[in-house]
Amino acid sequence: MAEENLKNITSELLSIVKAFPDLYFKIDRDTNILDFRTYNKDDLYVSPDKIIGNKIIDMLPTEVALLYKSAIDYVLNTKKLNP
After folding, report:
1. Domain tally for the chain?
2. Which of 8, 33, 53, 60 could make a disulfide contact with 65, Cβ separation 3.0–4.6 Å?
3. C-beta of residue 83 within 8 angstroms of C-beta of residue 76
4. At residue 25, what are phi and psi to the nearest 5 degrees?
């Protein structure tokens, strides 16, 4: 039963992610990019083969990277998405 519930939740989450029209990155706690999705390759500043394995904070302008890092640290430390 637990396996069936996990399959249902996974399917639901994948459907939600596929519905996002924007660029989506899957990262680990160290900000390494594990995967990404985009419906418009023109949204990318670099070729797709240069994205996976890099840190998202290293691929952004410093000011933006600091905002991302702060938000990621908040989520990891509080287990909450919003302050």
Report:
1. 1
2. 60
3. no
4. -120, 140
Q: What is the dihedral of CA 8, 79, 68, 43, to 10 degrees?
A: 10
> Which structural domain, as residue segments, surrounds residue 68?
21-78
57: which 2 tokens? 């904070």
CB 51 within 8 A of CB 36: yes
Select from 54, 83, 58, 53 the least CA-distant residue to 68.
58
pTM of the model: 0.66
Q: Could you tell me if residue 5 is inside a domain?
A: no
Q: For residue range 26-55, list pLDDT tens digits in order.
A: 889 889 999 988 877 777 888 888 889 999
Structure tokens at 69: 């890092």
Residue 4, both tokens: 């069936």
